[in-house]
């Protein structure tokens, strides 16, 4: 399960917000290139400049923009002050830097070819495994940015703790994914709903869904210890999002979603294969074992036919409906109306999405 590239912003991020966001990226990058902690050579400066642009830019920036959107809702305003905008955008970029760090290393581990429509960074000529160190540099940039712009804030230590904890959860989820789906003999008996859920929850949900809202809560002066239920709801939403992703990988229209799904060929611990294993008889399990994880189109077709035979499309739609109803009930139980609005706007962006 490669790190999901599609993710939700909880608002569309107006044109003004996106413009401000872009401008602040340039400032933050400039600061990294002028960091007095290291004596850069011209060559190393050029390398960092190109590497950061190549890996931090190019995505939809939904995680980063949703910090700003969430902060506005929490404050109950349509527009933030210049200082508030800068701080919210800066935290948004810290999440985008974190995403870049994960993706650079994830692509090496998965031996991927392309990312965001261009060659993976480690496949760029002259880069190769220097990309490992580049990933480490990207992660260190986050600490430098936080220190430079938030050190005097009362929530500075909470921010550091938040990024450290989310990084640990994500890396641990990645480990579970790698040892379950990549190492050793192909063994479908390792795959079940509990394993799938744990991988998704730790590898994707915390940094994609919880982290942007947690950043906005800290900016708004809140104590994250008071928002345990909000964390649980966002992690649940992230899990639901990845299940949708697994479903669309198989049943989505490649023309519409912009990519051709390869979970079957790649032997991924997908929600669909886990559901199939729960429902299959011995004969159907042997069809799965013989055909899952093979790039031969005939094998892929047999797996998809089996999914249809087991009515997995109907099971997914039932899961989607139940998840939505439970999430809405949990959100409406939140005492803080602004928090309810943030959570609902996240949910309505992803409910019944088709790409």
TrEMBL record:
<keyword id="KW-0460">Magnesium</keyword>
<comment type="similarity">
    <text>Belongs to the FPP/GGPP synthase family.</text>
</comment>
<protein>
    <recommendedName>
        <fullName>Farnesyl pyrophosphate synthase</fullName>
    </recommendedName>
</protein>
<dbReference type="InterPro" id="IPR000092">
    <property type="entry name" value="Polyprenyl_synt"/>
</dbReference>
<dbReference type="GO" id="GO:0005737">
    <property type="term" value="C:cytoplasm"/>
</dbReference>
<keyword id="KW-0808">Transferase</keyword>
<dbReference type="GO" id="GO:0046872">
    <property type="term" value="F:metal ion binding"/>
</dbReference>
<dbReference type="GO" id="GO:0004161">
    <property type="term" value="F:dimethylallyltranstransferase activity"/>
</dbReference>
<keyword id="KW-0414">Isoprene biosynthesis</keyword>
<keyword id="KW-0479">Metal-binding</keyword>
<dbReference type="Pfam" id="PF00348">
    <property type="entry name" value="polyprenyl_synt"/>
</dbReference>
<dbReference type="GO" id="GO:0045337">
    <property type="term" value="P:farnesyl diphosphate biosynthetic process"/>
</dbReference>
<dbReference type="InterPro" id="IPR008949">
    <property type="entry name" value="Isoprenoid_synthase_dom_sf"/>
</dbReference>
<dbReference type="GO" id="GO:0004337">
    <property type="term" value="F:(2E,6E)-farnesyl diphosphate synthase activity"/>
</dbReference>
<dbReference type="InterPro" id="IPR033749">
    <property type="entry name" value="Polyprenyl_synt_CS"/>
</dbReference>
<dbReference type="InterPro" id="IPR039702">
    <property type="entry name" value="FPS1-like"/>
</dbReference>
């Amino acid at each position: 399960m490669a790190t999901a590239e599609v993710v939700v912003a909880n608002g569309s991020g107006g044109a003004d917000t996106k413009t401000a966001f872009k401008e602040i990226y340039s400032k933050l990058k400039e600061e990294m290139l002028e960091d007095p902690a290291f004596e850069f050579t011209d060559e190393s400066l050029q390398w960092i400049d190109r590497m950061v642009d190549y890996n931090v830019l190019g995505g939809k920036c939904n995680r980063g923009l949703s910090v700003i959107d969430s902060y506005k809702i929490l404050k109950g305003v349509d527009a933030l002050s210049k200082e508030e905008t800068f701080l919210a955008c800066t935290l948004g970029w810290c999440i985008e830097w974190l995403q870049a760090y994960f993706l650079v290393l994830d692509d090496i581990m998965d031996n991927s070819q392309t990312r965001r429509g261009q060659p993976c960074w480690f496949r760029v000529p002259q880069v190769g495994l220097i990309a490992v160190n580049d990933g480490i540099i990207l992660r260190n940039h986050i600490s430098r940015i936080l220190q430079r712009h938030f050190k005097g804030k009362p929530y500075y230590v909470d921010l550091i703790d938040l990024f450290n904890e989310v990084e640990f959860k994500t890396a641990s989820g990645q480990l579970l994914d790698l040892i379950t789906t990549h190492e050793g003999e192909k063994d479908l008996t390792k795959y079940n709903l509990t394993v799938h859920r744990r991988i998704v929850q730790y590898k994707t949900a915390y940094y994609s869904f919880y982290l942007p809202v947690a950043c906005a809560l800290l900016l708004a002066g809140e104590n994250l210890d008071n928002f345990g239920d909000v964390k649980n709801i966002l992690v649940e939403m992230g899990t639901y999002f990845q299940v949708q992703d697994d479903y669309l990988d198989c049943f989505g229209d490649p023309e519409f979603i912009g990519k051709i799904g390869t979970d079957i060929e790649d032997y991924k611990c997908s929600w669909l294969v886990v559901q199939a294993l729960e429902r299959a008889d011995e004969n159907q399990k042997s069809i799965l074992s013989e055909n899952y994880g093979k790039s031969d189109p005939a094998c892929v077709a047999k797996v998809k036919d089996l999914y249809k035979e087991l009515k997995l499309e109907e099971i997914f739609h039932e899961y989607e409906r139940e998840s939505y109803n439970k999430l809405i009930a949990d959100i409406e139980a939140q005492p803080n109306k602004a928090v309810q609005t943030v959570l609902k706007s996240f949910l309505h962006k992803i409910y019944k999405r088709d790409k």
